[in-house]
Each structure stands twice: as C-alpha cells, then as structure tokens.
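Open question from group meeting: does this chain pack into something compact, or does most of it stay loose? Before anyone orders reagents, we agreed to write out a predicted structure and look at it together. Recording both the input and the output here so the notebook holds the full record.
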Amino acid sequence: MAQRKRTASRDTRPHRPGRRLRLAAATTTVALTGGLLVSAVPTVAAAPRAALPAHDADFDGDGYADVAAAAPYTYVNGKEAAGAVVVAYGKASGVDRSVKYTQNSPGVPGSAERRDAFGTDLAYGDFDDDGYDDLVVGVSGEDVGRDKDGGSVQILWGSANGLRGGTALKDPRPAKHDYFGAFLEAGDFNGDGKDDIALGTTVAVVDIYRGGFTRGGRTGGHYTVTPRIHGNGEDGVQNLHSGDANGDGKDDLIVNGYENDTRRGYNANWWLPGSRSGLKVSAAQKLPAGVITDLGDTDKDGYDDVVIGNHWDSGITGAAKGGAVHVVRGGARGPANGDRDKITQNTSGVPGSGEKGDGFGNELDLGDVNGDGNLDLIVGAPGETVDGIEDAGAVTVLYGRANGSGISGRGAKLLTQNTPGVPNTDEKHDFLGTDVHADDLNGDGRADVVLGAHGENGGNGAVYPLLSTAGGSFKGTSGIYPGTAGLPATGNPRLGSNFAD
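Structure tokens returned:
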C-alpha cells in the first residue's frame, strides 16, 4: 500500500488550528512539530523491494521521485501568508527543477488572498487513476463566501509536464468546523484500489472522501469517523497518517489528538483499521502518545509498524529528556498488541545525548537510505544546539538491522549544516530538521534524504536534498531557497516547514 506521512504540532500559527503550521515563531525552540509543508515524494521506476514503501510521488510520470514542500507564509502579490508550494522534480542526477505553485498559478482554483495559507498541509496519490500522481493541498485560512477561515482543499493534477490545473473539493460540512484542509492524508481504506482522502479540522470528526475523483469535482462518496479525541472547535485533529498495520491489504488511519477526557488532556494516537466498508471506529486501538508518525514494515514481517515521535522533554507518558521515538510493531490483531522499541539520543550508537529542548522525534520518515532492502529511519531534532549555536538543528539517520529485525542505533549518523555534503552552515534558529523526508530522487535504489530548515535566513526557510552515496555519505550540491524557487523573501515564507508524504 502507498505509504504517506503527516505530522502535527501545536505551534503558534496565524490563522489555523493545530498541527501543520509548525511554523512556531523563530524564537521558539521546538514547537514546530507539525508538518506544514507536506512534501510529496515520487517513486522511482525501479521495482519496489519487499518491506519498502511501494509508492513515492511522481507527478510527471518519469520514474523519479518528486518532493512537494510548503511555504505557507509566502507573500503572493503583496498578500501576507497567502502561501505557496514548491515541487522539486527528480532526475538521474538528483533534482531537475523546482516549480512554485500558488493560487495565482494558471489552473489553480481561487486566488491568492491574505492569510489563506495555501500549503497548510499536503498529501498525494493518483486520484483520477491516470498513471500520474496528484497533489492534495490544504488552504486552511481560505475565506469561503461569508465563512471566515472556512478553509478549502484542492487537488492539483499530475501530467507528463508535472502538476497542471486543479479542482476544488466541496466541504461536506462547512457549518460544523473551520480550517477545512488543515490536516490531510491519503490511503486506500476500503481496499478497492482507489486512493481515498481523509480530512481533519478543529473538531473530532474526520471526513473521508472515497476514491473515484474527477476533474469536475465528483468523488466516490463521503462518510465520517469520530475517534475518541477532544474536539471543541480549537483542538480537534492534530495529525493523520495511513498504512497497513494489520496486513489485511487495506490502509488503516492513525488519528492524533487529545484524549476525550478533558480532565487529563493528554495526547493520544488512535489506530482505525480499514475494512471493505471503510474505516472502523468500533475496532479502534489506542497507541502511545506522540504526534509525529510514520508507518512502514521495519522488521519485514508483512505488517506495517507505527513510528511515533515523542519530542517532549517531560509531562507525557514515554517522554525522555531531549525527545524520543517509539516503534510499535504491527500484527494481525493490530499495532496495540505488538512489541515496542524506544530510541533516544542516549540509545547506544546514537550520536550526541538528550538535552532539554532538542526535539528529537519532532519529525521523522522511513526509507531505505543505504539500499540494503531494510527500512531506515530519519529523525529531526530542530531544537538541537550544535557547537554552542542555539536551535541550529540536527538530523539523525538510524539504520535498519542487516537481519531485517528492525531499527537500531548502531552506525547512526548525525547531520548538521557543518557536516560535509550538507549545504550552508549552522546558524542560530535555522531549525534544521523542521521536516525530513526520504525518497529516491535519482533512481539509484537508495532513498535520498531531504531536509527542511524553516528558520534558515531569518525565517525564509530552505530545503536541502541530499543524495545517498554507495559509500554511505550524503551529497548536497545546493539548497532550494525562496529566491531560487521564484518566491519573494518578504516576511517569513518558512519554506521547508512541511513535506508531502
């Protein structure tokens, strides 16, 4: 099943609730856990290996992965935080070109307006079944008629020339919530071979559009699910992820939010299994706390495992000084019954040590970085102090064991902007690791590492694609910045705050 990732956080945000806008103020250490800029990564022409993601985003169908990154605070024609998405198209030598998309781009629905936040969240899939991946874009701050901050969701359609034109999806319940498009995830939840879309907002109800999308705006139907999270019009959903944790051939949905017991207010993840009729809330299972989640078969047993980032220093079950990552093993009865592994910066083999405010686990993604057929794990720690430089940020690459038994700390590598092969240099409040992504951009069978640093250059942000080499090192020739992507540097665009996974 296609694997996608999403991440959320409760950061300061200008107009939309919850997660995606992980654009906490640049002076904040690590409140940036969400994924604002969802990166869509393409899939390579090479046949997928067992246990590896079967599909990465390929918007132009050339067999090389493409990465979509959000810059939701971008000024467009002088309109503050109208928002933009930058897509880096892969090629044999790495990244071919970077193309910007805004609501003023040809064929994109609507028009750029103040604080629309085009790119609030991103997801991808082949929604019209034409062989090209499409990009779903959340525009959570969009005013719809008199509905202030009602939000909108658009599909930008893939083609041989990349993303071309778009279609707006109708909000099925506009009077019931704000910020439609704040949280997006795609998956085949009923196993019919068509990509569905899950949408979360400020309430506990998650809307599901069944596959069967057309460019005229039709869908395959609609239903809702209501996990046991607190939804009062302010909190609601904090994160969405999909994968097949019970191995039945249907994608499941992980919903992150706050427990329905308001006396406690704890963060929680709920696993909702897919079925022939769609997602089943009645069979939901509670998983460990943490808001940065990915799914993949790390131990090659045929079941996707749930990887959860718990970046808090304390105050929540499973927290550790500096942050932690939990791997919950999937199984036929669901992930809540599986074994659990915990990895911190104090785990044997992991570089550095856990320090308050590091945010280890703030973002993460799975991919086969060294090409050995086992999934590896990329972990962001955007609050890491590097050589005395506050919040410079760092990223750790954890490798899957050679015997396929799961993720290990052995041989882990630490990446900073002073690491050979990583562009630029460590600076205060760069927040390297704001988001991370794994994708085979050049089709050599190894997942390349893409890093977001939304604090780069005073909040302009940047994206750093690093090619994985046969020798285990990483090579990044240059970064993608607002200026190189054709975006104005006015204000704080925050490029790299989220990738589409």
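Observations to bring back to the group:
The first helix runs from residue 456 to 459.
The chain has a mean pLDDT of 87.
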